[in-house]
Amino acid sequence: xxxxxxxxxxxxxxRSLAERVVSPLLESFAARSTVSIERAVLRLYGVDGVDxxxxxxxxxxxxxxxxxxxxxxxxxxxxxATVRASGLPVQEAAVHLAQHGLESDxxxxxxxxxxxxxxxxxxxxxxxxxxxxxxxxxxxRLRLGTGPTPQKYLIVATGNIHEDVPQGVMAARQGAxxxxxxxxxxxxxxxxxxxxxxxxxxxxxxxxxxxxxxMRQALDEVGEELGRYIQxxxxxxxLCMPEISVLAAxxxxxxxxxxxxxxxxxxxxxxxxxxxxQHFSRMLNAFSGIIINTGEDNYLTTADxxxxxxxxxxxxxxxxxxxxxxxxxxxxxxxxxxxxMNPNTEDGLLYEIAMAQLVRQVFPEAPxxxxxxxxxxxxxxxxxxxxxxxxxxxxxxxxxxxxxxGILTEAIxxxxxxxxxxxxxxxxxxxxxxxxxSEEIQYAPDGRIARRAAQVLDxxxxxxxxxxDEGLVPSVAKAVFAGVTRLPDGGKGLAGVFxxxxxxxxxxxxxxxxxEVRA
Amino acid sequence: MxxxxxxxxERLKPYGDTMDDGKTQLSFSLPVPAGPEAAxxxxxxxxxxxxxxxxxxRMEAMGPTMSFFVFYxxxxxxxxYKNLVVPKAEFEALDMHQIDDLIEAxxxxxxxxxxxxxxxxxxxxxxxxxxxxxxxxxHYGLERYKMVKAVNMGAQIPPEALVARAIAENADAILASVxxxxxxxxxxxxxxxxEVMEAEGVRDRMLAIVGGPRMTYDLxxxxxxxxxxxxxxxxxxxxxxxxxxxxxxxxxxxxxRA
Lengths: 519, 258
What we know:
By secondary structure, chain A is α/β, with parallel strands linked by helices. Chain A has two domains: 33-144, no CATH class; 145-453, TIM Barrel (Alpha-Beta Barrel).
């Protein structure tokens, strides 16, 4: 394999800086919770469904507890006390809790102890069920096998799950390894997860448990037919990160976009809300064996790829550290980057290779997620097809893992069936034609590519030093990433963050942190 | 030797490699298995759309029940180009320095432009290309203009918030960028934006401009905007239009430049 001459000491130093960036925030994760974490806890216990106004019961319960000033001890404790006092099954107890509020006295030590015992026992059972789902999926994946890397990732986005399913199946038959169902525009800003099978969405389809199940089942069936395991991915970003992680674990998804920094910068979600959400969400993803995809590629849609490449690398180091803190192994860290340089740049291909190879070598075990050109795509579909061909070449040359295929009608409409077909033809052609190219050539030790990679690493270290000194939250306020400013008390969702009471209970968090239930 | 025929502007049609050959590329899919029946169906569809000599150059099976086609055909329709009237934003093209000079000389103050992606649209690539310092493709954005105060509110801004900010900034123009157009989402959002401006009584006080990959001047004016900018527009187009349109409204003509 061709390798860049990398300064390993500098890479290690960058990692130590990322640790300095992330460590101060870990304390706040332990001291706070959010409405979406509490709703995720309820979902883990089995609370589901919606009321007559289509409001999910997890929202009804959490809203009620919040209104009554009883959320700070955790939804787990309230649910447990209600189940104990009423003798009702979980779902009915949750409905009762939403309608009547918490009727038990949590100050009674005997009752409090019994409630805690129930909460812990049921949490163990719930995690054991999720572990079984993960294990079954792992067995299917091993039995059928997955396609060679770069794995071809294609999106469907009709808005109607019943239309998405045949499109996903068709894409799998044409050679896709990974199917993503793009979410409806604006779902990331909903502070609830819609329920049931949905047939209306703009620019995508709502992420719901039922929609996950339909697509999962269809991809499993076509996977058996093809003798190839087809992976399914969705989006645990926005205001409902932890809940989407729960639904994805329950329904057997393989990957999730999961990146607080992305939500902060591009969806204007409050930094405290989403970092707190992300931590619990990633703990769940780690347990469920779900690969996360991070969104650094998006930086380059607003910032310039040639000038700001180092912000991508710096953010990847930070995202790696956040993921480690949540217990994720590197094999689940699909760190993101993109092929977004201006095609008018002389030697742009060399700089793209430098960046892709650098990311590959710095995170050798991570299933790197590689994104196609979007910013400089013009609507000239013939030109875009050429653009995507070079993107594919860099992907196979530098050994990218998860490759979102460029679509010739990018920026025009959600992909036609034929757009996906042509994208797969392009990728298959390049991957086949250049399969072992990287084994045959080497980088000039002091050539343009090596110098560019060294420069990006140097600049990333410089940026990380600054962020480590100033702190992540103030740095984001100073538009360090993607040229976007986000203030600590700005953005959406801050009202959903609360300080935990001393008696706060979330048995899932404790069990996941201690890794007592093995997946 | 006969010269090359000139285009007949009253009966314009596509040019492949010979004047008036009408040659056109087509590609599409049919939800049936590739085969002789699919090929015949595809050919008849092309014929039915008025293309003469339909030539199927490629049919591929995209799966068991889907076929993909590439066709060529000769378009028979013509259009009277000579008498075509297309409404568009009327302004003289200027570069950044010329625009700054014009604003300084004619207004003596910075023009204020407030921009955003209104509604649920999360795609800032368009508004950033027009407004951010860096601009796009070598064309600086409005932030770079000495004589423009550019306020970029970013994505997913409710129309009320955009208008409120424009009022607070005493803006000369509002810029809305819409990228997501599936299910006509942008129509709803843009209509709402104009309604909010009217409700706040500022519709006549500031220019309302919209841009996006699917935007045309026609659609923009139909929705109640002053102008619409489609793909290939840069900051200097928007700035030149804003300055000149404001001048026009003040009854001043564009000064003749040396």
